[in-house]
Amino acid sequence: GAGVSQTPSNKVTEKGKYVELRCDPISGHTALYWYRQSLGQGPEFLIYFQGTGAADDSGLPNDRFFAVRPEGSVSTLKIQRTERGDSAVYLCASSLRPGDTGYTFGSGTRLTVV
Amino acid sequence: AQSVTQLGSHVSVSEGALVLLRCNYSSSVPPYLFWYVQYPNQGLQLLLKYTSAATLVKGINGFEAEFKKSETSFHLTKPSAHMSDAAEYFCAVNYGTGTASKLTFGTGTRLQVTL
Questions:
Q1: Contact: B101, A48; criterion CB under 8 Å
Q2: B99 to A48: CB separation less than 8 angstroms, yes or no
């Protein structure tokens, strides 16, 4: 597609529930990144994919969070047993190849855990 | 560890006035540096980037930034503010390629433009 697409744009879920957030990167981009932006803060790195594999998952806060990118294109961020502290905007970005500078961000998914 | 400091969480300028948003990074190794803008309920849009070429970088919407290694700074400027410049601005740093290509962001500066 023309840009990075993230769905849903908004998600409200109850504490303890499971959620999936989807990212569709720019066609042909091999590198994909997930960031989390809490209110009043800058985005914080979560995980980076190079192709199908997670090259760096050092930003995932705990084992309730994991992400997949099975075919090297669309990625899904999965959060189990959601907590109120997980409420944030989850941003996805992609770049043509790893190490490209200034990659393209999607509009984000605003997750609210009530 | 790499870090980015943005001085001033809120900056207010009059329309037509100079915009100066400050960013300092921590490193002895020149990094790649970026400025992003975020409008309400939107994603991040790249304004400009420094990748070890010219130290004065020109970006979109009339913005520019100068890399000063001696000051470890990458301040963003615009000669004349416009109402449409009101947004959140983020400075970010990237120290390398491959698995080190993740960005570290500052906490952001909210720019307000008044009449």
A1: yes
A2: yes
